[in-house]
UniProtKB/TrEMBL annotation:
Gene: ribE
Segments forming domain Lumazine-binding: 1-97, 98-195
Known function: Catalyzes the dismutation of two molecules of 6,7-dimethyl-8-ribityllumazine, resulting in the formation of riboflavin and 5-amino-6-(D-ribitylamino)uracil.
Superkingdom as given in the UniProt entry: Bacteria
GO biological process: riboflavin biosynthetic process
Native organism: Candidatus Erwinia dacicola
Lumazine-binding repeats: 1-97, 98-195
Pathway assignment: Cofactor biosynthesis; riboflavin biosynthesis; riboflavin from 2-hydroxy-3-oxobutyl phosphate and 5-amino-6-(D-ribitylamino)uracil: step 2/2
Cross-referenced InterPro entries: ATP_synth_asu-like_sf, Lumazine-bd, Lumazine-bd_dom, Riboflavin_synthase-like_b-brl
Single GO term (MF): riboflavin synthase activity
Catalyzed chemical reaction(s): 2 6,7-dimethyl-8-(1-D-ribityl)lumazine + H(+) = 5-amino-6-(D-ribitylamino)uracil + riboflavin
Name of the protein described by the UniProt record: Riboflavin synthase
Gene Ontology cellular component list: cytosol
Amino acid sequence: MFTGIVQGTAEVLAIEEKPNFRTHVIKMPEALLPGLEPGVSVSHNGCCLTVAKVDGNRVSFDLVKETLRITNLSELQVGDTVNVERAAKFSDEIGGHLMSGHIMTTAEISKIFTSENNRKIWFKLQDASQMKYILHKGFIGIDGISLTVGEVTRTKFCVHLIPETLARTTLGNKRLGHKVNIEIDPHTQAIVETVERVLAQREAALLSAAVAEQQEEI
């Protein structure tokens, strides 16, 4: 599990491509190296990856076909940077919201509004069917950053970013058309799906009752 509080950014130092598989090497921030070993989980732009090899501050991770298909990690090039966070411990402060590191879809940046002390960014989901899980003032994970949803339309949503977030994460360098990884808040997802299921059952029961009543009249 992760908290959505990005602990640093890491440069991609090398990429090794194989059929439907990739290994990339990042320069891990020194503060995140203690205790790091193969098998440990590290979030890259919100996507949970497992450490494959540690060589000083050069840390390798393997990315399988599904990860490359559904996240923006497939678009990384040498020299790019990613948001990183070590897996949370029981004693850690949860400053954001609990995140699993499982990316649901990506979103494209469609609008950016910048003022003196903050920035508003609008996103359009690649999978529009998941807009039902994005609610005003709800939680969302964007490239591993725990954020609060601002306005929501039928097809888009926005977040408001403070200078600290822009300085500490990769969002400060994002431009129109860039893709970000999206993790939906699982509690919101569970509530929405439960309500949908209950309403569908209720509608089916009412329809069945109406049909039965018609048959009795006949």
